[in-house]
Write a structure and sequence with these properties.
44% of the residues lie in helices and 20% in strands. It is α+β, with helices and mostly antiparallel strands. The strands form three sheets. It has a four-stranded mixed β-sheet with strand order 2-1-7-8, sandwiched between helices. A two-stranded antiparallel ribbon has the order 3-4. A two-stranded antiparallel ribbon has the order 5-6.
């Protein structure tokens, strides 16, 4: 093999290795537990808003949203910079404290549900549901269903950039009259 051909092969190999490592790094999302996010909000001088992804182990759309949406580099970067990101199992068994109340698992049907997940989803047990909370952990909005990266980022920016304080969703999203 000639030296130039070896150099070209080496360049191509290194290029793809570099691409793979950049892609993996850009898509890294650091998920927190509810307790970890609560501690950060309480102890930070300028806390971020809180984002909660409510899922179940059996939910195919939850897995698809993890893979397609939350691992999207643009979504992952924006969310990490603007929110504490929490994964919450809608059928989790551990008690959760929120605003002075303890929420527990409720056996029901074949599996059951967690009272906290039900409260955040406003009684509509639908997976996935994503929840946006402000810096004081007050509800901004639940967003039920699978969201593709671009529409999800639009919703996230509505809350993350405080647009919700000045415009209603209809005006912001162009769905109004």
């Amino acid at each position: 093999m000639t030296q130039s051909r070896t150099a070209i092969i080496r360049f191509i190999f290194l290029f793809f290795i570099g691409l793979a490592s950049v892609n993996t790094y850009a898509q890294k999302v650091e998920w927190l537990t509810w307790e970890e996010a609560t501690k950060l909000v309480m102890n930070e001088e300028n806390p971020k808003k809180v984002f909660v992804d409510i899922y179940t182990d059996w939910c195919g759309w939850c897995k698809k949203m993890d893979k397609d949406t939350f691992q999207n580099p643009e979504v992952a970067t924006y969310m990490s910079e603007n929110f504490y990101m929490v994964k919450l199992d809608g059928e989790g068994k551990d008690p959760i404290e929120y605003k002075g109340k303890t929420y527990k698992f409720v056996p029901s049907g074949r599996k059951g549900y967690h009272e906290f997940a039900a409260a955040l989803m406003q009684g509509r047990l639908s997976y996935p549901t994503t929840i946006f909370l402000d810096e004081e952990m007050n509800m901004l909005s639940p967003v039920p269903g699978y969201q593709k990266p671009k529409p999800f980022l639009n919703i996230a920016k509505y809350f993350g950039d405080d647009i919700y304080k000045e415009k209603d969703w209809q005006a912001y999203s162009g769905k109004g009259k």
